[in-house]
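User: Can you fold this complex?
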Amino acid sequence: MKIGIPKGLLYYKYHVFLETYFKEIGAEIVVSPDTNKEILDLGVKYCVDEACLPIKIFHGHVAKIKDEVDIILIPRVMQLKEKEYICPKFCGLPEMVFNSIPNMPKAITNPIYANNNTKLYKWAIDAGKYITDDINLIFNSFNRALIKQSAHKTGIRNENFEINIALSGHPYNIYENFTNMNIVEKLNKSGVGVITEEYLSDDLKNINVKKLYKKPFWTFLRENYGFTTYEALEKKVDGIIYLSSFACGIDSVVTELIKDEIGDFPFLILKIDEQTGEAGLDTRIEAFVDMLERRQENESDIPSHG
Amino acid sequence: MKVTFPHMGNIYLAAKALFDGLEVEYVIPPYNSKSALEIGSLHSPEEMCLPFKLMMGNYIQALNQGADTIIIVGSCGPCRFGEYAELQMKLLNKAGFHADFIAIDAPSDIGIKELFRRLNILTKNSSKNKFEKIQVLYDAIKIMNLIDEIEELAHKYTGYERNKGTCKTILNNCKAEAIKCNNPKEMIQLLKSYKAKLNHIAIDINKDPLKIAIIGEIYTVIEPFTNLYIEEKLMDYEVSTKRSLSPSWWVKNTALVPLKINSLDIRKASKRYLPLYIGGHARECIGEAVMALEDGFDGAIQIFPMGCMPEIVSKSILPTISKDHDFPIMSLVVDEMTSEAGFVTRIEAFVDLIERRRENELSRH
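Assistant: Here's the predicted assembly.
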């Protein structure tokens, strides 16, 4: 049986688990190609106008491979951590896809609660049922997939650079090189090293998160807020770049909270949407890097918005 | 301590009664208006949703009138509303205002002790004893239910009335007089008399008015300023409207959530299209659309603020419901730029459309 896995949203973080699991239980995997113009256009064509770019791109990936496969995986990620959500659109993703794209094949849409392994195993059984009845095989494949996933480290940490910045944002914005126009490569070329939140432990992230009035209920809020504020306040990096998709509800809160906490620390928010032009992005990055360089030369604290 | 709270439909009447009864000082912010929105937008992040901006406007106007404590209910769901208190606190500070926040969250998230501690801040200056406090709370809830019932009746009967405008006049008089009452008992009496009045207006039972369901995001459907008084406009067109989301619905629903017996009808109706709660009121929106078509409504209008995450999901589902059942549904997105003319044109076109559909249906038989 051919199972389609769209290369969008949290695929970038959990592809090892998904691919290993479905391969081991005996499915033939079809992964959609890297995001390209065609996929973006398909996404924009089918998806509801108001949605954000990553959701549109996910629609594009589904539309691209839907005719080649027998069954398609639409991960309905409810929770990754206890009492933390991703975004309402993730919870309703299968409904969005099914009501927007015509002639859909069968799909695996069971809700994923990845806050503990028992719940995740339950998902694995439900999802595996479409492919095999062998419960032992499911159990073993699930465990192997988990081990492989935990051995797989995502994240970026460049070393030996004069200037370093913290690159923050949702993982699908950071690793989706089509929409962010190879931002990491661009930064490296202009002599800037990048570090992402995966390289900061949860304990350090939670230092500033605990100071908030309310315990965050979004995983991306806790991670990005904890990471950027720690790096900024401890002066581990020279600046912060936050990659955000246009009209992202979560980022409208996160970036504001970060701004409030870090004060005058250099902070650049890059908005990406389907209209983003590369030249505009380059200019903004160059200006930001210039500013960081000049700050280092002058060795004084010039406010970022001076 | 002078308490204030954000506007949301008629909730200010219940709040007024509550604080009058408790003898706590309070400020009712000026009604939502262009200036409230302008002040709010100035101090809010650009991509924030409309309710946030309006609430900021309410706070600042009330703070300028001497308030110093803000009450807001919260949630810990995946929708942005849960983070309102956090961000509003910081933004008000940044703008140079000093206000204490009392965020009333569900006990499952903050613990029952913390909830009582927060509520205690509110009532500690009150001279009333425990029994009287509970009595006052009961009265306030009663007022909220009454005003919601009155609105519902007025919106329903408006299609059947013999003298055009009766319902609208009664409703407006009711609100204008209720705000003048200075104690809860008086207000309850007044509301009851208006409810009786509405139940005794001259109606033409043979009329078969157009019926439209108002669905969508809770704040924008309840707060008339955000939807440019759509319900009032539809009253002028003699269209009966129904809106299930109301403050009293919200309170009842929230109270029943721990027992998992909340909104059973909505859950049943939405099962086919959206089987899970995804935050906000997306599932309610879908359920109400299905219920509206089952109840013989002529159409539904969905209203939500620009960028509302849960309603974007429901917006992508609604066309399927519309297609499956041949049921007209229109989505209206509102933000601080919404202009009256464009808005009215769309509403009029929609009303025309369902009217003509009905004529065609009649001529076909």
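Chain A touches chain B at residues 47-48, 50-51, 76, 78, 83, 85-89, 91-92, 95-96, 99-100, 111, 212-218, 221, 246-253, 255-257, 260 (CB under 8 Å). Chain A has a mean pLDDT of 89.
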